[in-house]
Structure formats: structure tokens, C-alpha cells
Design brief:
143 residues, alpha+beta, three-stranded mixed β-sheet, two-stranded antiparallel ribbon, binds zinc ion
């Protein structure tokens, strides 16, 4: 992802991406968002949910790796709900967050990774990619 697009996602709720400043032994976030700019909107919306969860309930969602795999988005994260909460509530917070992540990952299956227009999953040069017809035509293959 280009720095400009990454900043747009990051700005929404920097707290979620704080492991980006730690080394690769802590998490893979030091590699940034390992996907194309076309998914920046999906990531920005998901990050906004984390911002709301933090502001309303102090549920802390921390990204550990964000990447493309087999043509779709993978968003690995940990959820840290307030320690004072009973265990079932902390578990519930994690389940709610997982639901939002699954929605975002599903959205990436029909969103062009390069430009964000409606796309489809294609098998291309030995790789699965999700691209729109225009980006396929241009042979813009995500790296
Ligand atoms: Zn496209």
C-alpha cells in the first residue's frame, strides 16, 4: 500500500496500529499494510469501528498483521477488553470484533485490490487476485 493510502487508514485510530513501531519479533505490523490501495476504504471503515469501540467501551483492538492472501484481505488482531470485565464479556468483545473483521475480509472478495472498484477473484499467473476488469486489462498485478 502506498504511504498516502496507509496514512489515511492509520489516521482514523492510530492506537490500533501502534505495533507498527515495534520490530518484527513483536508483530508483522512493522511491514505496514501488505495489500493494494484499493482496500484502503475497507480498512478505514473497519478502523473506524475500532475507534468507536475504544471511545465507547475502552475495547482495545490491536492489529498484528494486515495483508493479502489468496486474493483476499487477512486482518490479524488481538482484542483487549477492560481487565475489570468478567471473562464472558471480554470474550464477547472478541467475538464482536471478529465479526467486523470477517465482514471486511468478505468485502475484499469483490473489491479490486488496486483501485477499489467492484472486482472479482481471478487466478492469474499462479496467484489468486481480486481485480476489476480495467485493472486486469492493464495487467496491474499487486506486489
Ligand atoms: Zn481496479
Amino acid at each position: 500500500m502506498t504511504p498516502r493510502a496507509a496514512r489515511r487508514v492509520f489516521r482514523v485510530h492510530p492506537r490500533t496500529y501502534r505495533l507498527a513501531w515495534r520490530g518484527p519479533r513483536t508483530s508483522a505490523m512493522c511491514f505496514g499494510f501488505e495489500c493494494g490501495d484499493g482496500w484502503a476504504d475497507i480498512l478505514a471503515r473497519l478502523t473506524f469501528v475500532w475507534r468507536v469501540m475504544w471511545c465507547v467501551a475502552r475495547i482495545d483492538v490491536i492489529a498484528t498483521q494486515v495483508k493479502e492472501k489468496f486474493g483476499t484481505l487477512r486482518y490479524y488482531h488481538v482484542v483487549d477488553a477492560p481487565r475489570a470485565w468478567p471473562r464472558f464479556l471480554r470474550r464477547w468483545a472478541a467475538i464482536v470484533a471478529d465479526g467486523f473483521v470477517r465482514d471486511a475480509e468478505y468485502e475484499s472478495t469483490y473489491t479490486c485490490e488496486m483501485c477499489g472498484e467492484p472486482g472479482r477473484e481471478l487466478h492469474c499467473g499462479g496467484w489468486w487476485v481480486t481485480l476489476c476488469d480495467v485493472c486486469v486489462e492493464r495487467r496491474v498485478i499487486p506486489t
